[in-house]
Amino acid sequence: MYRTWLQCIRGCGERYALEEVIYICPRCGGLLDVEHDVEALRDQSAAGWIRLFDSRMRTNDWPYGSGVWGKKEWVLPSVDNENVVSMYEGHTNLFWAERLGQELGVEDLWVKLCGNTHTGSFKDLGMTVLISQVRQMRASGVPIRAVACASTGDTSAALAAYGAAARIPTIVFLPRGKVSTAQLVQPIANGALVLALDTDFDGCMEIVRQVTADKSIYLANSMNSLRMEGQKTVGIEIVQQFDWQAPDWIVIPVGNLGNVSALGKGLLLMKELGLIDKLPRILCAQAARANPLYLSYQSHFRQYQPVVAQKTAASAIQIGNPVSYERAVRVLTRLEGVVEQATEQELADASARADRTGLYTCPHTGVALAALFKYIERGEIKPDDRVVVISTAHGLKFTDFKVNYHDSILKDVISRHANPPLELPADVAIVQDAVDRALQGRGINP
Fold this sequence. Notes:
The protein is an alpha/beta fold and 446 residues long. It has a domain at 94-120 and 228-406: 3-Layer(aba) Sandwich (Rossmann fold), CATH 3.40.50.1100. 38% of the residues lie in helices and 14% in strands. It contains 17 helices and 13 strands. It has a 6-stranded mixed sheet with strand order 4-5-13-10-11-12, sandwiched between helices. A 4-stranded parallel sheet has the order 8-7-6-9, with helices on both faces. A 3-stranded antiparallel sheet has the order 2-1-3. Helix 7 links the parallel strand 7 (170-175) and strand 8. The longest helix is centred in the first third of the chain and has 17 residues, at 123-139.
């Protein structure tokens, strides 16, 4: 009943079947997007879609209990249910950041904890779709030997886990020495072929593009639009968690720009089908050491120049030549999007400050929070705005970042919110004195 296909995002509008192993339009070189027959989707009313999606929340009816596959008709309706590879991803909680919001003067502040999922990042949302489609293609005779990606950590973890569950071989290209130990061990543990290359992410991306010119090795990076079909559900899920009311702002850290492209895609589809009557504004946040989108935004997107990404604690967005730039600009133009950057000092302090209020943030969420702080200080985000910050990964993936900050050895950062342990002898008098002095320092008197 519901049709989907691949279509060039540029003016040529060429269409291709989902079963084709293709990522770039051969006619004009544009990226491809998964397109849906929106007129067919209109056969169901907005109220009908809301009832359907709400009825599937956390059910055990395969595969609709997944936060992604509960919206299957909007994602990839052509995949047979027996070929779906799901770990019941999605349904991550919205954390009401009450204390942090009070400190900032924006009390309706929420954090979407996308790291509370199987492999610890939002990449699971897209990988369930891509691997399910690969499984469908293999079942129909398409000769795909393996699935490959370049990664700064989270994509490789998701690919390896979902590939292992589907019995599909996976290949991961990582920049050697530029991902955290926790991220490196995930694809190793899940049995992927892990190649650590002496280059950065952009160099890995160039190599994987050449390797996947062999059509029997399928590309899993966000250059492949299938990933975005799953990732777009994060925006839909946020709105659903607010009883189908869109927030005023969504703040998202960005690197390769597939995530913001997907976020906008889901929001725009909801607006088109009448589930929401307004669109939130999008604030994209980049690390200052890997900021091509921010620099382009300074010229209102009239100019774009890739950069050589410098080392940043926000390693997953250390990307100087984002694949999905065109997609992101289209989305930001339609959603009144803005772009901000954060220095190493700003992102580290923002992350630590949020942690003091009960969160446990990855450095990329720190980038988003630092951008949020700036927009609040400027008065561009108002005290009565409802704001959602997307936390892309779990802080436990970045233990070294946390430890080094609190040990005051994080490079190029003065740890203003450091809270190292007190090392004391096992003497109750000395311990009691230290406790009293520490509490008094926090304004708590006996």
